[in-house]
Amino acid sequence: METELEWVRVFPSLEIAESSLELNVPRALKYRDHRLCLIRNSDGIRAFFDECPHKRVPLSRGSCPTGKEIVCYLHSYIYHLETGQEMEGNGGELTFYPVKHNEDGVFIGFPSQST
Ligand code: FES
Fold first, then answer.
1. Is residue 69 classed exposed, middle or buried when 0-12, 13-18 and 19+ CB atoms within 10 A define those classes?
2. What are the boundaries of each domain within the chain?
3. What is the pLDDT of residue 15?
């Protein structure tokens, strides 16, 4: 069964998102009880759960040196922004939230709270 998504507008336009999110710099975002990390790289905008799978610290405090990965600040585990997989065999995986944009803005899809 597919999870229903609630699409929430997080920026009023792609242009504003691009000017607000510095390239390859993680940014924390909170919506209700969801804590997210946003990164804009050359492929677009990624959103994922803002918690390192290793010891649960915020990944938004990490770095994104090449634009292809997020590096956790605590033990330097590296998670690929395309696959979500840890890149050096340590295990763990990012939990992504879908991102889309249209003429009305930039939206993130949150799991619906309805049952
Ligand atoms: S807490 Fe992130 S790598 Fe250990």
1. buried
2. 5-110
3. 97
